[in-house]
Amino acid sequence: MTEGPVEEADIQLIQRIIPHRYPFLLVDRVKEIVPNQSAIGIKNVTMNEPHFQGHFPGNPIMPGITIVEAMAQTAAVMVGVSQGFVDEEFLVYFMAIDKCKFRRMVKPGDVLELHVTVKRGGSKKVKIWKFEGRAMVGDELAAEAEFTAMMDLPGE
Fold first, then answer.
1. Of 33, 49, 51, 152, whose CB count within 10 A is highest?
2. Measured between alpha carbons, how far is 30 from 125 in angstroms, rounded to an integer?
3. Considering just the CA atoms, what is the radius of gyration of the chain in Å?
4. Alpha carbon distance 135, 139 (integer Å)
5. CA distance 139 to 1
6. Is 20 labeled as catalytic in the residue annotation?
7. pLDDT tens digit string along 135-146?
8. Which listed residue (20, 51, 55, 115) is catalytic?
9. How far apart are CA 3 and CA 57, in angstroms?
């Protein structure tokens, strides 16, 4: 297990924890990781992302579900760092998305800050974790949700 807070998980560490890759890796960096408690992820929204080709031509808007997925990936990185799942076969599966609301459109050029907090979970013995997430663009709330995920733990 990693000791103490980790200031940042760069893209190389993220890819050593979660299996997501382009075009579905939706977090560029994770900062301010408080093990088993919270983290803040960063997603730089760029026009070259494939969903903007069809959502919507002439008015690119990041799909809401990809914002929620970016929050979930941030949570998975926090769990992976907290539990020492670097270079393991660690998978996370959505079980529920609750209280999901979209408050602001997210467009190319925006920087999403993905704030996730553990509501339930926090140990290797617990497979089901619940999180609260908020996606911010600057000081504006873009989306919020509670989500539950099952951790497919290495070696189990």
1. 33
2. 24
3. 15
4. 10
5. 33
6. no
7. 999 999 999 999
8. 55
9. 46
